[in-house]
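## retry 2 of 3
previous attempt timed out at serialization; input unchanged, resubmitting
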Amino acid sequence: MQQPEGFVKKGKENLVCQLKKRLYGLKQAPRQWYRKFDSFKTDQGYHKTQADHCVFVKKFDRGDFLILLMYVDGMLIVGRDPKKIEILKKARSKLFAMKDMGPVSKS
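## retry succeeded, writing output
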């Protein structure tokens, strides 16, 4: 590793900076993202399925549920109650920078 061009100081050419947080694109970034997201969902009462650890389920009274599926940096939310889906989106957006792409389409 080398210092970026323009930031090299005489006598300190061999010194580099230590990162204090993970950066997008580094090898450990996906794992750190998943750990943070998993902790967030677990704190909200969601459970990972045994078949796929990127599928989170939360069951409510009267058989209602929400399912959140993760794939790379995309998510799909499935549920019957639009109000519960909106509450999930608001809670998620407080901790993570996210963009709502709207309803799913086949195209």
